[in-house]
């Protein structure tokens, strides 16, 4: 049954996000979230784990916002390739930065997981990187709203 659900979701994604630039931006963000959650599986320290899970929940709450930006961008500037539409270049840049920052957030969490002994500042380094993701998603939303053709 899960196979058919994945097929249906793929068709829905193709319809809403296209197969180009905006789909790639969305999928990259989604993969970054998956990576972050995979890192959580190896955390032994309960306090650190709880801090990282809280950050994970906040980051996961961004996915519907990223999807909404990508869906709207696909409506305004449909993409089936990798060419960045000039009018929405800033939106794409912000989404790309958010994907990169999410990857570095997962990397920072992995480094904490591998730390020997107690971590004196907890997940502070991960939170700082996550804050950049929040800002960049907000930037993408702001830029898309500022580029509203209505």
Classify the secondary structure makeup into a structural class.
Answer: mainly alpha
**β content, as a range?**
under 5%
Shape: elongated
Low-confidence stretches: none
Cα distance spanning the termini: 42 Å
Q: What level of helicity do the residues show?
A: over 70%
Structure explained in plain terms:
75% of the residues lie in helices and 0% in strands. The protein is built from six helices and no strands. Helix 2 runs antiparallel to helix 3 (46-60), helix 2 runs antiparallel to helix 4 and helix 5 packs antiparallel against helix 6 (124-146). The longest helix is centred in the last third of the chain and has 25 residues, at 89-113. It starts with a helix and ends with a helix. The model has no long low-confidence stretch (mean pLDDT 88).
Question: How are the SSEs ordered, and which strands pair?
Answer:
Blueprint: H1 2-17, H2 21-40, H3 46-60, H4 63-76, H5 89-113, H6 124-146
Helix pairs in contact: 2-3, 2-4, 2-5, 4-6, 5-6
Question: Outline of this structure?
Answer:
This protein has 150 residues and is an all-alpha fold. The protein has helices spanning 2-17, 21-40, 46-60, 63-76, 89-113, 124-146.
């Amino acid at each position: 049954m899960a196979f058919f659900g994945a097929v249906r979701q793929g068709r829905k994604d193709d319809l809403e996000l296209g197969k180009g630039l905006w789909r790639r931006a969305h999928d990259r963000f989604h993969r970054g979230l998956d990576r972050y959650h995979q890192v959580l599986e190896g955390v032994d320290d309960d306090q650190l784990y709880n801090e990282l899970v809280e950050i994970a929940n906040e980051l996961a709450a961004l996915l519907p916002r990223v999807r909404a930006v990508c869906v709207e961008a696909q409506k305004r500037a449909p993409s089936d390739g990798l060419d960045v539409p000039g009018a929405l270049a800033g939106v794409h840049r912000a989404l790309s930065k958010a994907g990169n920052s999410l990857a570095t957030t997962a990397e920072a969490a992995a480094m904490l997981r591998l730390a020997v002994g107690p971590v004196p500042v907890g997940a502070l380094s991960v939170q700082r990187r996550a804050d950049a993701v929040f800002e960049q998603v907000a930037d993408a939303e702001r830029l898309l709203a500022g580029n509203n053709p209505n």
